Amino acid sequence: MCLINVIASESLGSNYLIKDEKLTPLLIQLLKVEKGDSNLRQNALGALQKFSLHRKPQTVMIENGMIEWIVSILKNVISISIV
Prior knowledge:
single chain, 83 residues
């Protein structure tokens, strides 16, 4: 996963990776399934963050509920910090 994140850091690498239409949904699923702040989750999030600069992956992320997922994560963080 680290390699995907590193490759996505470069414009050419990101353009290459997003050609695989299965990769963005796979990274999204990984984020939703993986618990805690693992290296796997951090790298998946990093790659998705870089992919989000492109229209097609943005649409895939929206269609796969990433906005709702992010809001739920932020709500959990806020509720934990209030306690």
